[in-house]
Amino acid sequence: MTVVPSGYETPPWQQQAGPTVFAPFPETTTYFGDAGKLWMVNFRVGNLDAMAAQLRSAGICVEIDEQVYPNGRFARLYDPEGNPIELWEPAGRDGAR
What we know:
The protein is mostly beta strands. It has a domain at about 40-95: 2,3-Dihydroxybiphenyl 1,2-Dioxygenase, domain 1, CATH 3.10.180.10. Helices cover about 10% and strands about 25% of the residues. The protein is built from 1 helix and 6 strands. The strands form 2 sheets. The protein has a 4-stranded mixed beta sheet, with helices on one face. A two-stranded antiparallel ribbon has the order 1-2. It is globular and about 35 Å long. The mean pLDDT is about 85.
């Protein structure tokens, strides 16, 4: 297994179900939205729009990032303790442009 690729041109670790990435962030990152949050779980999904609709129908707030990245699409939600959770639809999957 390799650490997260340093660029979009380097493929990540592959499993039968698809790519998996372990991405350490600097302790000072603001990516998680709160300086007190030092980690985040990221789930690979087959259809980001369908998953977001399912979560929203259960009363969960989901924010879909409108930008499409070379590696796919992302959405953010939070667990009851305020920890960020990211959903990732890899490029080339349903809906990923």
